[in-house]
Prior knowledge:
The chain is α/β, with parallel strands linked by helices. Helix content is 46%, strand content 9%.
Amino acid sequence: MSRLILLFHKMRGMLRLPPLNAATISVRQTIELLDGPFASLAAAFNRGEYALWLGSAISRERVAALNGVLSKLIEFLRIRITAADECPYRRALNQVIDIANPSEHERGRISFAQDSAAWPDLPVLLKRLAEKYSTVLAVSVEGQPDADYLLWEGTDFVHTFANEEPDADHLCICILALEGVASDIVSANWDGLIEAAVRELGHTLDIFRICVTGTDFRGPAAAARLLKFHGCAVRAIENEPVYRPLLIARWAQIVGWMENNAFAAMKNALLGVSSQRRTLMIGMSAQDPNIQALFQGARALATWPWNDEPPAHVFAEQSLGTGQKTILELSYGDDFQPNQAAILSRSCIPAYGKPLLAALVLNVITSKCCAMLRNISTPGLQGHDFLELDKGIKRIRDLAADAAGPDALAFIRRLVRHTSRVKAMLQEGRHSTAAHQTYRAISSRHDVDNDPNVGATGQREAASGLALLGLGEISGDWSLTLGDLINNEAGAIKISSNAGTARVSFAANSNADLNLFKDCVYKEDDGEVILVHSSPIVPFQQRSPSRQMGRKGKTSAAHVDLSSIIKSASDIADLRQRFRQEIGL
Length: 585
């Protein structure tokens, strides 16, 4: 794969395309990476082979991000400065500013008499301080015996880390856990943003086994383990005596972490994760010595070949930093230096957390839909026919990716809302226009092929319907758009062609169909409705009194028995033709 990645970069240069920028890359461009030079990474991720290692960058735009924490700390010190020559707060603030290493010009524009938010160079100073946050939090204030005084009091810890709103990254991580592909999530962050994302998605924290102390590892299994090896703000606030001492913030705490008996169980768990699972590191510089020591210890347990396929260690970065290169050198030993160029190229995917995680979510859903296609009774279809259906599913994926704009959070929330609503309509005939929907996973297992519960959900046939719609879009038979989600008659997807337009909905069985009808999601005499059934259709009495025209004069909803069409089709061309005739477009 390293040759493929190098060829990919070479071809971009020959075509004079601008280099991909991890900060501005789109979700669609990221998917192209996952389809191309990082295809083996995507496939292995879908199989649940990668552990996610998360750093502070995924929380940068939230209140609890390092920049926000450090700005609070600076203002905390500033407002407590007195006129005394030996004011401890003045001394402490000067030490913090010194850590940012300001130029003479920058230092001259700092005024302790002025709100720090108005300092012209504050954003620059905060950026530098964020890279040395553990040194900043190690600054002591004379007269304060608590070594963590700046962390707990200076950052207003309780209020800073309470009631946080998740970002797109955190929602995506929870979706990946619910879909069963991210069962080990390792976080250096204290914040409760992943926990907040769980609640927004309509689930309880039971989906995670959240581990900080050794005893936290006990108990029933969960969808995923969330290993917060630098401590947990939520638990520190709720149970200060037990969890506050486990907050790792100061440099001395980081250096001493490996020998701290309070983290013995965590250390053993992380050695297991790093030696047994491939690593996808997002938003983590890996500059802390305890992180590097973990990967060094993992090599002693089990080595990863540097050219293993897929790569054992991948970082979501524009280019790899010193800490990340150190992990690669520790992991690959003597093989690192002679193969450094190839290792660095295959270990760096140029997409930061938001586009990468969104692309992974879309890819996981796509992979599961493609897998489900192959578990339907299709006596006439052969292997190459399924490859064509895969193209249709990927077309739907790409259309969704194209809809992702600069607001990643809004996109993920729309994606959750739409997919959850469509699944509820499919399986129960229930629809909701609520702003937040409970996320409904396709399957809690990454290997959807072996999930015995999927067959009864109607999702397999619905996936084939999406594939056929996607193939029609590719060939220009029609165009597809999402429906209006605040309209309970919107359906799942809109289809437009020269023959007319229609709203497409899916129903797993007759009970779901009847519920959709009763709730006026569709009317039998609405010619702009196409209802795709996953199982044989059970007719019921028409009840709608009005007459509507749609699909070029048709006066009744189209009911498509997809299971029968699939069973009787002789090949992919025949299947597409039968489907098009049934929907009347």
